[in-house]
Amino acid sequence: MKSWRSRTAAGLAVAAAVVAIPLTAGTASAEGWEQVGGGPAVYGSKAECDAEAAQLKADGTYKDARCYVDEKGWVFLEVLR
Q: Which segment of the chain is annotated as a signal peptide (predicted)?
């Protein structure tokens, strides 16, 4: 039989996950933007990413594409399907 301490810890972990999942997914999914690539190994600069984003829009691959730089200085590509 499990102790009350382990049951309480498990209950708190589940509660934290239930609260955290909607908070982390809310902004990206609400707008429809989806991260499809990026990081230090993919883009050397934001200009490289911007060029790929422009090409993806021109080809009609995605409705829209945009790049952003995170707090670490890594460049990421987001698209709107």
A: 1-30
Question: Where does 33-81 show beta strands of DSSP type E?
Answer: 33-38, 64-69, 75-80
State the Cα–Cα distance between residues 26 and 13, nearest whole angstrom.
20
User: 79, 62 in Cβ contact below 8 A?
Assistant: yes
32 vs 8, higher pLDDT? 32
Question: For 2-11, what is each residue's pLDDT tens digit?
Answer: 565 655 544 4
DSSP state of 2: -
- Amino acid at residue number 6: S
57-78 pLDDT, tens digit each: 999 999 999 999 999 999 999 9
Backbone angles phi, psi at 37, to 5 degrees: -175, 170
CA distance 21 to 24: 5
